[in-house]
Amino acid sequence: MTASLTLVLLMAVLFGAGIAVMLERSLTRVLIGFLLVGNAVNILMYLMSGAPGLAPILGEGVDEGEISDPLPQAFVLTAIVINLGITAFMLALIYRSWWLAQLGAKGDLVDDEAELAEDAEEAADLIRSSAADDEAIQSLIDASDEEFDELVAAIDDEELEREASARDRDDERGRP
Amino acid sequence: MTATLVPLVVLLPMLGAAVTLMLGRRRRAQMAVGVAVLAAVTVIAAVLLVAVDTTGPAVVYIGAWDAPWGITLVVDRLSAIMLVISAIMLLVVLVYSVGQGIADQHRETPVSIFHPTYLILAAGVFNAFIAGDLFNLYVGFEILLAASYVLLTLGGTGERIRSGVTYIITSLVSSLFFLSAIALIYGATGTANIAQLSVRIAELPQDVQLILHLLLLVAFGIKAAVFPLSFWLPDSYPTAPAPVTAVFAGLLTKVGVYAIIRTETVLFTENDLSTLLIVIGGLTMLIGILGALTQADIKRLLSFTLVSHIGYMIFGIGLSSVLGLTATIYYVVHHITVQTALFLTTGLIERFGGATSINRLAGLLKASPLLAILFFIPALNLGGIPPFSGFLGKVGLFVAGAQGAAPDASTAPDWLIWVVIAAGAATSLITLYALTRFWNMAFWRRRDELEGYESVLLGSVLEAPEGATVTATRTTPVLMVVATAALVAVTVCLTVFAGPLFEFAGRAAEGLSDPSVYVSIVFPGGTR
Description:
The complex is a heterodimer of chains A (176) and B (528).
Chain A lengths: L4 H18 L4 H21 L22 H34 L8 H63 L2
Helix pairs in contact in A: 1-2, 2-3
Chain B lengths: L1 H4 L2 H15 L4 H29 L2 E4 L10 E4 L1 H28 L9 H17 L3 H19 L5 H32 L4 H8 L4 H19 L8 H4 L5 H26 L6 H20 L4 H22 L2 H32 L10 H4 L1 H15 L5 H14 L11 H31 L11 H5 L17 H19 L1 H16 L1 H8 L6
Antiparallel strand pairs in B: 1-2
């Protein structure tokens, strides 16, 4: 039996990575691990069909020995479909378990309208808080601006005074 | 004529599932369709049983593609008896859940997907029993597993999700094992047809056979809950609704046992793992039943006895003599009905008494003598009290063990078999002890003794972790009682008609003891 080395390596990597991820506690990672290992098994199945060949359709002038084995391909297709269904169910399960972990059983009692109202309130809170933030920042900026102005004014005053005193001194020296 | 009936056992439940799904809002129509479909399948299975027994096995080549290429469905005596008993059981449990649904206004099974999923589960189980192709067997497993995931997490409460996750991930791993095994077997032999594999696997080198054999056994062992691989079962089964637990406990593990029987008798006849199977059978019995001793909750207790009694079947398969297989087939039939009957009765106790723990139940004998009878008969039966079928099945297995393993097919030493027989007798007694303790507390103890009752022994046994409190309804709907009584009557019939049934099991085992019989069924003209 001939097999593609690339596919063998890919399968080994998928198996290794998948099993490593599957050992994690988080359900989402377990699902990712299952998907990786599932695809590794699919590649294993495909590898078992031997060397690649022509499309498996018998017709005139087609040598039976040259076509590839169709059975593993059919197996792989079936396995892919099954994996798809299981994945969809697992995602629903993960979402449900996340929902229960976040809200507990009382999460089921929140009806849609109450939830919408709550959402609107939360959004209003958010907007309000950002407006407050803006105000606060503005007041900070204003405050620092004032400070800066005062500082500048103070420096100006100082310089004026210094100049004035220098002039006074010059005056004193210039007129002995 | 009979061959045309074979695909119907899978087709009818599938179509029924589609119809019940469309009838989602009309509960009564859903129930009627579900019950009608399963009743029809029961009749078909009974017809097949008679036909197969008198005129020989039925084989169907789907789409008229001949054996090694197309999908083959095979019904021999083993498949036929499994079909009949599982169809009866599925029907009874469906009637029971209908009764429960009517009484509760669908509190326990509130969703309209219960009936479609249940029928899909039935289709998967039947498909696994008639598959003549390893890949078709895998598809059957996946159908029933996908349906069982939905049924186990029905309603999506926190408790069910938590226990469902354990079950689902364990099953996914076992499916991956199974699929890898199929891939490697296909690589080694170039076929997935069980009959052709029987010929070609025997030609492989012994060490290759050993690897493939162990891979398949691990995959099926997880499903059958055989000892080191049984950890998931007591944690996941008890939280489901009562009818669902009953079906799972009675049937799903037996599909694994059926697959192991096929593996040992048809696929790997030249590769001997019987010593391993006998040792594992003994360990499964003892460790399972020791777990049951520490449980106060009847549902968990029964789950542990379930694991423990799988050990008897594995032991019988390990003997691989005709008598061993005969007793195993009889025991499988007995165990499916008895275990289901016990779980159904537990559902009634839960409704009537408001609890499933022996610390909170008392005075049931006086309150409901009928309930007491419905529990007492299957409990004694499971414990192996003569003259019930549990006793007959165990004696059959012990006699088969005493005669020794088949000299040409098994290398298990005699002393080992005697040790496991002793373990089996001990397990039987401990099962009886565990169930009698429940009986004494729940049925014989007076109601007023319950208040302030303190016992060191009872204090030390475990309650169900975070067991939900159930409110006692004090009502037992007629339909639920009738369904349970019917199943208990079936278990009694297994005792009354033990003679003909054992002879039938003998003929089935005769057909299994020589793999060339199975091969000649599928390939009348011989394999190429």
